Each structure stands twice: as structure tokens, then as C-alpha cells.
Amino acid sequence: MGIPYPISHISYQIVITPYHGGVEMVQSKADLFDQEEVYLANLAKALSHPVRIKILRILNEKNVCMCGEIVELLPLAQSTVSQHLKELKKAGFIRGDIEGPKICYCLNESVIRKAREMFAKLFKSINCC
Fold this sequence. Notes:
Layout: E1 14-18, E2 24-28, H1 35-46, H2 50-62, E3 65-66, H3 67-72, H4 78-91, E4 94-99, E5 102-107, H5 109-122
Antiparallel strand pairs: 1-2, 3-5, 4-5
């Protein structure tokens, strides 16, 4: 019996199946999909919040930005902004370099290029009625 999660959480979906002698085994549903599909789903998950989109826009416009500067541009607490930056960094969209007590964030061009290519490939030809 599976634990229901939205499709955007596909890499975390879990299924419990019977195993030897009634012992249960945990299996990830992500193993049922190819690496490209799981990677693209994780990128989409990282983009699934408007604050993260705004942060990417800010970083794109400024080229480099300190965490404090990003907080000043958003109507959110520093801890909330930091959590969103953490998610973007985990997905690879941004890099953070420590400069003394501050962290300087910038876009990770290679991941952004790859994401653009993968989304373009996904929607290359739309065959719909």
C-alpha cells in the first residue's frame, strides 16, 4: 500500500511491500522512473514556489547578491528567505560562496542551461487534440 504524495514529490514516494515471513520492506517509487525524469521533477519542485522564482529573478538582475540584500527586496523574514535559498541551492540553481559572515549567492549557469534544455525537450512537440 502506497503513501499518497503529489507527483512533485515523486522522489520521496514510498511503497510498503510484503517480504519474507511477513516482514515489510520499503521501496522508493523513484526507482521506477529514469534519472532524467526524476531530475526534472526535482528541478520543477524547486521552482514550485513564487518566492523562489522571485529570488532567481533578483539574482539574474543583480548577477550576485548577498543574503541580506535579497531579504531587503522581499516581504519575508530572513529565516524564510534562507530556507528558500537552501532549496534553490539543493536543486543546483544557485551557488553560495561564504565571504566572511555573509553568503554571496549567484546563479549556477550550467544547471540553468540544463534545466532550460530539459524543459524544452519535454515540450518539444505537443500532440494534443
